[in-house]
Design a protein that fits this description.
481 residues; alpha+beta; six-stranded antiparallel β-sheet; 19 helices; 13 strands; 44% helix; globular; disordered N terminus
């Protein structure tokens, strides 16, 4: 035998294996072959324990906190001087109250039937938390766009929150009861049909299904086209450059500085600004290395405090102005990441809260798990011992106000957001499993629509309690900010 011959492994005789025995061992992180069970059948089996009709029910639990107590608890840990703004925004209407009370609704949902099928959920999937934003090349996509409360939890929590929010938005817009209920019903139907459609597609095609103009055809949302076009037109102009032009000025040294515009935009001390700027070093390390040369071409110019949306008012949030060699701005938002309001209620629904090493990291990874296209500068950092997420500010963002839609548009919007939610859930749950539970008929649609109407009634009562407390002087509120 030559030296070359000895270096080549000897051919082995092919051996046969019993039928049904895999040739290769199971490998961690990959599916087994052949599959031991059908995910679709497993999904259907969940109906035996939790019939789809069971989702229609909602009764107020005896130990449920009242609306004022819930708002006060949700304000704990926020900046005290800003909580009246948050309360004022929640008092604007029942839909606004729902937007600011994700924790209270989680308390309620934990006492409703759950299938036990988990996925990465938004945790705050109300109808106003869908919107347009730009991908890395400036193209616009539409998707879920707020992930402060994201956790691994029951998929139906997101769906029920979306359905209830559509009923409230429709009522605020003046739509009749049938229209509001139909919007919720059709949102669930679109979720169910999209889940079943994605289950039948090749995995890569389903995984990369992007929310673009084809979404309108898929959900038959043609009455919404004009509104989406108008929102897209505004979104294309909603950039760092436009914000900087309105909100900054040139300092004596030639650099740019934020203008003071309290209470929404406020200048901060040099010491506080320096701490926030220094925290971007940790943020830098959370980005993929291929992003580092991009940021290396920007210089930090200024930092200011900026009040954020209804659910987040009172949390610490900064905007950081960066500038390239041509003077073109890039603005980053450095936003405090609090623990998800859903975490205290997961155990009651049979879910274990995942250990979180950094709340900003939780938000960022949850967002990336649910979106097809995410901000390519998403990251996280720590400021004065508190966790923050970091993202682009005014990244060609645009949103539809569901409470301003006509009845026909509301139904279209419901179908579109229901489809988007289904796609988002399939990034961490097998669509065959959830689709198997949802089924072909409208039983789930009817049930969740009934829940949505009942929960909208509950939210209107909660909102009335809050307004009454404000009038009595029990709770401080700053309206119209």
């Amino acid at each position: 035998m030559t030296e070359l011959d000895s270096a080549v492994p000897a051919q082995r005789e092919a051996t046969s294996t019993p039928p049904g025995t895999p040739r290769l061992p199971a490998v961690h992180g990959f599916a087994r072959w052949p599959a031991h069970e059908s995910p679709k059948r497993a999904g259907k089996a969940h109906r035996d324990r939790v019939p789809r009709s069971a989702h229609a029910g909602f009764t107020t639990a005896g130990d449920r906190p009242d609306a004022v107590t819930a708002v006060r608890e949700s304000n704990r840990g926020r900046l005290a001087e800003l909580t009246p703004i948050r309360v004022g925004r929640m008092a604007a209407g029942p839909f606004a109250f729902l937007r600011g009370s994700a924790g209270l609704m989680a308390f309620d949902l934990a006492r409703t039937p759950v299938t036990g099928i988990g996925t990465q959920i938004c945790g705050d999937a109300h109808a106003a938390n869908f919107g347009l934003y730009a991908d890395a090349r400036g193209g616009l996509v539409i998707d879920l766009n707020d992930f402060d409360e994201t956790v691994h939890g029951p998929w139906e929590w997101d769906l029920k929150r979306l359905a209830a929010s559509l009923v409230l938005a429709g009522r605020e817009a003046g739509a009749d009861g049938d229209t509001c209920r139909r919007a919720a019903h059709d949102a669930v139907g679109a979720y169910r049909r999209t889940m079943r459609l994605l289950a039948k597609m090749p995995v890569l095609d389903a995984w990369n299904a992007i929310a673009d103009e084809e979404l309108v055809s898929h959900t038959d949302a043609h009455d919404l086209v004009g509104t989406l076009d108008r929102v897209a037109g505004k979104a294309r102009n909603n950039t760092s450059g436009r914000f900087a032009a309105k909100s900054t000025e040139t300092a004596d040294d030639g650099s740019r500085r934020f203008l003071d515009a309290p209470p929404v935009l406020q200048r901060i001390s040099d010491e506080e600004a320096a701490v926030v700027a220094a925290a971007l070093s940790e943020y830098h390390g959370t980005l993929p290395p291929d992003r580092w040369p991009l940021l290396a071409r920007y210089a930090i110019q200024d930092v200011a405090f900026r009040v954020v949306g209804t659910g987040s008012v009172g949390t610490r949030s900064y905007v950081v102005l960066l500038q390239d060699h041509r003077g073109e701005p890039l603005i980053l938002q450095v936003k405090e990441a609090r623990a998800s309001a859903l975490v205290p209620h997961l155990a009651a629904a049979g879910f274990k809260a995942e250990e979180t090493e950094h709340e900003g990291r939780r938000v960022v990874l949850g967002q990336k798990r649910m979106q097809v296209v995410s901000d390519n500068l998403l990251g996280w950092t720590t400021v004065n011992g508190l966790p923050f997420q970091v993202r682009q500010f005014r990244n060609r963002k645009g949103s539809v106000d569901p409470a301003a839609l006509s009845p026909d548009q509301l139904d279209d919007y419901g179908r579109m957001t229901g489809a988007l939610l289904a796609r988002a859930h399939t990034h961490s749950a097998d669509p065959r499993l959830i689709g198997g539970y949802c089924g072909k008929n409208e039983e789930l649609d009817e049930a969740v629509a009934a829940f949505a109407v009942a929960y909208a009634d509950r939210t209107e009562a909660d909102h009335a309690e809050l307004v009454a407390a404000i009038r009595r002087g029990v709770v401080g509120a700053e309206m119209g900010v």
